[in-house]
Amino acid sequence: MSRASARYFSRHPWQFGLTLLGIALGVSVVTAVELASQSARRAFELSSEAVLGRTSHQIVGGTVGIPEQVYVKLRMTLGHLPAAPIIEAPVRSDDTNKVSLSLFGVDPLTEPNFRAYLSTAADAQAQATLLLQPMAAALSKSTAARLRLKPGDALTLMVNGRRVELPLALLLSPASELQRQGLENVVLTDLSTAQEVLGNAGYLTRIDLRVPQGERGLSVLNQLRELIPAGARLIDTASRTRASGQMTRAFELNLLMLGLLALVVGMFLIFNAMSFSVIQRRPLIGRLRVLGATRREVFFLVLGEAAVFGLVGTVAGLLAGALLAQELLVLVTRTINDLYFSLEVSKLSLSPAILIKSLLLGVLGALVAAVLPAIEAAGAPPRLALQRHELERRGRKLLPAVSAAGGVCLVFALIAMALPGGSLSVAFAALFFIMFGFALLAPGVMVLALKLSRPVAAAAGGDLASLALRGVGKHMSRTGVAVAALMVAVATTVGVAVMVDSFRHSVIDWLGLMLRADMYISVPGSGNVRSMAPETIRRVRETQGVAEVSLGRRIFLESELGEVEALAIEMAEKSYAGFRIVSENPERAWAEFEDENAVLMSEPVVWRSGIDAGSTIALLTQEGWVRFKVGGIFRDYSTDRGIVLMSRATFIRYWKDDGITTIGVYASPGIDLSALRQRLDVAASGDQALLINDAASIRELSLKVFDRTFTITNVLRLLSVIIAFVGILSALMAIQLELGREFAVLRALGLTRAQLFGIAEAQTGVLGLVAGFLALPLGVLLALMLVKVINRRSFGWGMSFEVDPALLFNALVLSLSAALLAGLYPAYRIAVTSPAEVLREE
Amino acid sequence: MGKALNEIALIELSGIFKTYREGEARRTIFDGLDARFEKGEFVCITGRSGSGKSTLLNLISGIDLPDKGEVHVDGDDITRLSDRERTLVRRRRIGFVFQFFNLIPTLNVEENLRLPLELNAKKGSTWDQRVAELLHKVGLSDRASSAPENLSGGEQQRVAIARALVHRPDLLLADEPTGNLDQQTGRVVLELLSSMTRETGATLLMVTHSSEATAHADRVMRIRDGCLEAVPKGA
Q: pTM of the prediction?
């Protein structure tokens, strides 16, 4: 039996090939997404692990950091406790590549207690070099190679807008993968060098600690809590690392879902191929049954075939997935760098767990898709053949049940949406139910649409048009699945495109609203950057043509939710209009904002924490933990971690810090902005290189980052369409093979090759149009889910929902062209096949 | 000058050489076959399975081409025509009846009949009239809107005969039209085919194994060893 089955597929290599291609593509996309996300996550964990070393706790806090005295006091009080003072800040190489680096200032003598890279005897010299050579820096060999530097060269950095040169004193040779990852893109210096570079003398970023476990540890922690000053906080490093890793969770989940979607489309393909192979082999199966094969044996024969397909396709998919993952990794890392934190991922980590999971997914997917065709095969009566139209008739009988199942899926989706808890996974489950529901409804709707349009087609194109149209409906068991697969793929494209478009519109509106000032002056860099000199601020204020300025300080603060980004702002009169309050009563929100005990929060913070307008949030100030009233919620798309907005007066009062990192400049009416820009260049010049941008260039840059973020989404969308394309091609090839005799008869009756080609292409065109039209409502529904539910549950963002008719039209064109393109080869084969050959075979 | 118009046979094959590939080897079907079929005659063609009976019909209809030789239809050598031109000859001048009926399953009876008319762009009021007339002749006026799958084998073949004659072709090619029918039904179909063709004045070439069919024919030819030979009637 298996030999007969193997021979069948060897005689239909395209069917075999396209099925494998479908599985391989589906599996490769899921594997690639998982591998890329996991590699990024692993790189993050490794670098966290390498940077944290044996650190169990940290003392963090303060807008400028921890005063050095805290460390001194700690050593005096708890001399036995391993502690390492650390300065860490993001910097950038000042070469053409502008590589993001991390400046890591350490005490070479205490480091060996925490991190291994300076602990070996061979590195004693390294310790001495860092300690003794002024402004000495060390890089790992691979980082130095990337920056094209050798020992003795000057490493030029841009730090807080200043250009700093450090002699590269030594290269570090990491002893393990962990160390290598930890030292990737790290500029290692002595503590004092780092303080000088950052202009932050007397302050540390944090103090790493190794607190023993058990009773003793608890008593040490109590002692530490008494020691640390009001503005500092003792944190458990494991929970902090976990929280950082969680930041990208929603992003990864979104990618995974798009990957799974590709697999679902691939499963349609398997279903199509397996059911076609069963239908085509019914005479053979009938003969096997006559010869004594049981239903059970036939059932397992088909499942066995699917398992072989699944296995071979999945193995190919895993290989392709590993290659694709390399490309996706670049996109994933870039997005993480754009949206979350600086991350360098130098290599793909081929996790065996992911590979095994993908293997199981591929094989099980193939088996699940083959269950119905296997049941169909097992049900074949032991006769030589069953007429094809009998099968189609049976299929049409089943149509109401299939459509009803589609309806049930949609009801499940509604129930899933109504479930309390607002879980993202449940939202995705609802999304998949909606897709399956529509896929099951697709054949029924297709048959109905064809029936309704037949008179029109017959009136316009005569019996040939009618012939083409009926061919589509007649072979519903083939065409229905192909239409469903294409519909799902095109709907995904519509859904994601509408979501991205809505998001983009919302961001554009937001940018237009927020960027009220004519010019923005800011300190370059991220994190808690050094503030501008008061003299610079004064000069900017007094520049001719400057009507008003807003002063801002963007900073990371400790909160009860962990680290949060905050913006302390002294508003200009026009600045208020730049924030859209989405909670009730905006007037009251602004009144609260001016009050020194309240803050405003952006939507993601509310989503993440559940803290809503009217309640309070605890922030760690220089006076210790203080609860601030949440005066209102505002819309902000600058970060998906959310932002806390407070008045500068509040910030100065509680954090004793009057630093400024951004100035919004409002020009006087009628002022020539380019002339103002030149005057501001002069006013802002000095020791610190500041960035001056007009609102338009910031808007442009923001949208560039936005578009870059969605590159990976577009790649995954495209892959889904390619898989659906393979599905259509496979279905059409199947139809072409099956209808060979019918086409030969038409040729015998006098249809020219061109007419036959036209009929075949018209049929694929009809498939494309039906799929396209069905994809529009599904796509819009998916977009609505993505915008109003998934995005909200992932990131907390609210956004407007906009459907561009041009986008829908493009989707229709995409569906039609994909089908017509997929139909070209089968149509060509139909046209050129010799009718004599086919009729002779008869 | 060539032959006078009345001397031109409807079909004339000369020096036909035709082989088929069978794996690595080539099998010769016709080796210098010559034949001539006159207008309005009914010729039965017999021969063993695989002797090339159907191939002969395919060559005459231009569905297939000989490796060597000429096939003249009403004086024109169709082997020199393009695929499209051969198709147009087939469309206008030839009707087909197959062993397995080969109705278009997605068209109903009436639409199957209209298809050759539509291909020949013979539109107008006579169209429906012609279809109705033929359906009446084959006794299926009441099945005009039925799907082929709902007809019996004999009914399907009657529709196929009507379809083959609806556009008034000069030549009807029938490939074992009774081969898939029981004796009684086969007899009815044969009667119908013979009488309707004679009525239209078309030439009928029928490939058959049936001795009953040969009894209806004007001539009987047998393919043997790649050549066509006359068989005395009743032999």
A: 0.70
Q: Please, which residues 354-413 of chain A have a Cβ atom closer than 8 Å to chain B?
A: 387, 389
Across the interface, whether the CB atoms of A750 and B119 are under 8 A apart is answered: yes
Question: Which range marks the domain in which residue B110 is found?
Answer: 38-64+84-231
Spatial separation of the C-alpha atoms in residues A297 and A281, rounded to whole Å: 15
Per the domain annotation, does B14 fall within a domain? no
Q: What is the pLDDT of residue A378?
A: 78
- Of A268, A309, A733, give the one whose Cα is nearest residue A482: A268
CA quadruple A769, A773, A776, A779: dihedral, nearest 10: -70
A840: chain B residues, CB-CB within 8 Å: 54-55, 58
Which residues, 6+ apart, have CB-to-CB distance to A750 below 8 Å? Answer: B87, B88, B90, B91, B92, B94, B116, B119, B120
- Does residue A384 carry a pLDDT above 60? no
- Across the interface, do A387 and B149 touch by the CB < 8 Å criterion? yes
Q: How confident is the model at residue A123 (pLDDT cuts 50, 70, 90)?
A: low
Chain A from 171 to 190: CB within 8 A of any B CB: none
Per-residue pLDDT, B169: 92
Residue B72 forms part of a structural domain: no
The Cβ of residue A225 has, within 10 Å, a number of other Cβ atoms equal to 10
Report yes or no: A130 and A169 within 8 Å, Cβ to Cβ: yes
Q: What angle do CA A94, A97, A116 make, to 5 degrees?
A: 80
What residues 77-96 of chain B have any CB closer than 8 A to a CB of chain A? 83-84, 87-88, 90-92, 94, 96
Question: Which pLDDT band, with edges at 50, 70 and 90, does B70 fall under?
Answer: very high
Question: Cβ–Cβ of B106/A467 closer than 8 Å?
Answer: yes
CATH at B105: 3.40.50.300
In a domain, B13, yes or no: no
**DSSP string for residues in A607-625:** HHH---TTSEEEEEETTEE
**Vertex A429, ends A423 and A431: CA angle to 5°?**
105
**Which of A369-373, A534-538, B102-106: highest mean pLDDT?**
A534-538
Q: Which of residues 197-226 of B touch A (CB under 8 A)?
A: none
- The minimal CB distance from B106 to the residues A470, A754, A834 is found for A470
Q: Which band of pLDDT confidence, cut at 50, 70 and 90, is reported for residue B2?
A: very low
A463 in contact with B, Cβ within 8 Å: yes
Pairwise CB contact (< 8 Å): B102 & A750: no
The residue ranges of every structural domain in chain A are: 13-56+238-386, 63-230, 444-513+699-842, 524-689
- Give me the mean pLDDT over the B157-173 stretch: 92
Size of interface A-B (CB pairs under 8 A): 83
Average pLDDT of A396-419?
Answer: 88
Contact A467 B96 (CB under 8 A): no
Name every residue whose Cβ is closer than 8 Å to that of residue A320 and which is 6 or more positions away in sequence.
A24, A25, A28, A32
Reported ipTM exceeds the 0.85 cut: no
How many domains does chain B divide into? Answer: 1
